[in-house]
Amino acid sequence: MDSKPKRRGAMENGDTGEDLVVATMIGNGDDLGPLVRRAFEMGRTEGLVHQLKHVVKKKEVEIEELCKTHYEEFILAVDELRGVLVDADELKSNLSSDNFKLQEVGSALLDKLEELLESFSIKKNVTEAIKMSKICVEVLELCVKCNTYLSAGQFFLALKTVDLIETNYLQNIPVSAIKIMIRKNIPIIKAHIEKRVTAEFNEWLAHIRSSAKDIGQTAIGHAASVRQRDEEMLERQRKAEELNISGLGDTVYSLDVEELDEDSVLKFDLTPLYRAYHIHSCIGVQEQFREYYYKNRLLQLNSDLQLSSSTPFVESYQTYLAQIAGYFIVEDRVLRTSGGLLSADQVETMWETTVTKVASILEEQFSHMDSATHLLLVKDYISLLGATLTQYGYEVGSILEALDNSRDKYHELLLEECRQQIANVISNDSYKQMVITKDSDYDNIVLAFHLQTSDVMPAFPYIAPFSSMVPDCCRIVRSFIKGSVDYLSFGVNSNFYDAERKYLDKLLIDVLNEVVLTTVQSDGIAVSQAMQIAANITFLERACDFFLQHAAQLCGIPVRSVERPKASLTAKVVLKTSRDAAYLALLKLVNSKLDEFLALTENINWTSEEISQNNSEYMNEVIFYLDSVFSTALQILPLDALYKVGCGALEHISNSIVAAFLTDSVKRFNANAVMVINHDLQVLENFADERFDSTGLSEIYKEGSFRSCLIEARQLINLLSSSQPENFTNLVIREKSYNALDNKKVASIIEKFKDSADGIFGSLSTRNTKTSSRKKSMDMLKKRLKDFN
């Protein structure tokens, strides 16, 4: 019954497919926007409106049908709503009555509530005012504290207070006048603090520069103490090793360790620097302060590196170098403790600049120095400077190289000073054997330089075979070794023994040996002086081993390493050669003196008619002189030197006798003159034999005696005295009896031999009419030699 109206309505409305689509979309709750947009785009809006109207009508019909279907339920619902309305009216009446009563009761409470709310508002305002006042009071109290800190110079606390105000209070200050005032004064306060701190820092810069010299001197003094302590320890160790090697004791080693904090030794205050850097960091300009510090310190360094022209370097070098040392000690501590104020590269740059400048100044100053002592003092102080700054990590090799570059200059000056000292010693020497009267003198003079000829302690007074020149020269050489080692030590090269040995050889050869040779070969030297110098050279040669050992000890070289034969000094060989040259000079002087005594052309009557039975006066003087020479030489010269001098002197006498026959001043001589010379020669030969035996030379030299040195004169006299001189031309006899004679010399001498009436052969001719066979033989010899020549 219900479906018929529906079908009729649908039929009557004439639903189309499009109407159904629209209805379906509306029923499903779909969005009609795209459909409406499409209808507008296609221009079919009327159709769409018609469809919508149709859908509306359709829904109205459905509502109507629905109402008809549920009519009874609707009536019941309306009745129920009317009952509810009655109940609502009663409730409204009750509510109105209750509201009236509530209004009557709550009006008093409402008045009270308004009063309470007003009180709460007042309380809030008061609380806010108190809070604002507290903030202002706290800020003002901080401002008072800041002013107090500023007045007391406590800039860091003042700056921290300003930072506290700026960070925690400035934005919260309720009073704008106070806020503006504080905001305005904060930069002023910071600028004031920076100015005051910078002023204090500048004062510290001036103070630390003036204190740098004391800092450097203290540090260098400490380094000198450490070096001295180390040297004393090494000396004790060396002596202990020597005792151990010699078997005199057991070596006991002990290590003394003394740890000293350099910062505790060097006390200087960096607090102003730390405070200034920290405050500038707090202000936020730490980079600016770093540049300011580096720039000012670099200016101070450049000023310190300038050498004063008004004061000689030898008087100002300690102050100059101590100032530099103090400067870099301060910079080292600043680098280690300031927390980034200085960089290692900046310090290295300053140090490299300093090294270049100091090395240049040292080389220039060393070139102008004319005193080895001054140069050594400067070098020693520089080496201490190097040792001091090395402890702080600075590289001092370039400075020490400047010292090594000047070591030849130093040794030239030292050698020249030693040359003057040695020349003075030799010129002031008495050339007399030293007399030693007590043990201590013997130790200091003989044993100290290994000059003893025996290990047995002699009886006193002891007459040494050398003069005072020997120990004096040894002291000079020992002093040279000490000065040389002092200069070479603590340099770039730790092994400087070879260099020291070279300079020691140079002293002994080019100075000592040269001065001694010049002295012994000079014109004004006497025989006794030359003899003493020759003896002295022997002991100087012996002292060379001591010099080498002493140099090795000072250089830290084991003594046993220089005791090998190949390790000896070259000067030892040179002195040995010079000793032989001194013997020759001595012999030359002796021969010169003998020539004065001999003067045979004046002392011999070459054509005498009588034969003298007495010794010739000149021969007595010759023998007396030779006896004094031998006696003195026996005391101070070794036997081999005595033998050389004796042989040389006697050989010179022999040559002088032969030369006398050959001289042009002797035009003629006879047998009487030959007999006189023969007698003199025999006296001399007897003296030579006696001395050869008494001196002990006969036990050493078995083949060559003193007599053999007179062989040429003896053979010539034998020939002139021979009854058959023509045998000289017999090779067998000549080789046996006349091998030392020269044909030409004999021929010249024979030509001068004249046996006339005033001679011995002439007297014989008066008693004998026959020609002397001896004269015939002599004439035959003359003829044969003339033919031979």
Features of this protein?
2 strands, 30 helices, EXOC6/Sec15_C, Exocyst complex component, cytoplasm, exocytosis, mainly alpha, 789 residues, 76% helix
The major beta sheet can be summarized as: 2 strands, antiparallel
Helix/strand class: mainly alpha
Share of helix, binned: over 70%
Number of strands: 2
Strand content: under 5%
The poorly predicted ranges are 1-14, 246-260, 757-771
Organism: Hibiscus trionum
Pfam families: EXOC6_Sec15_N, Sec15_C
Subcellular location: Cytoplasm, Cytosol
InterPro entries: EXOC6/Sec15, EXOC6/Sec15_C, EXOC6/Sec15_C_dom1, EXOC6_Sec15_N, EXOC6PINT-1/Sec15/Tip20_C_dom2
Note down, in words, how this protein is organized.
The chain is mainly α. 76% of the residues lie in helices and 1% in strands. It has 30 helices and two strands. The chain has helices spanning 3-13, 17-28, 33-42, 45-69, 71-152, 155-169, 176-246, 262-265, 271-283, 286-305, 313-337, 344-368, 372-390, 397-405, 407-427, 439-445, 469-488, 497-520, 527-555, 570-598, 600-603, 617-636, 639-662, 671-694, 697-700, 711-721, 731-737, 743-752, 760-767, 773-788, and strands spanning 435-436, 462-463. The protein has a two-stranded antiparallel sheet. α11 runs antiparallel to α12 (344-368). The longest helix has 82 residues, at 71-152. The radius of gyration is 65 Å and the shape is rod-shaped. 28% of the residues are buried. The model is unreliable at 1-14, 246-260 and 757-771 (pLDDT under 50).
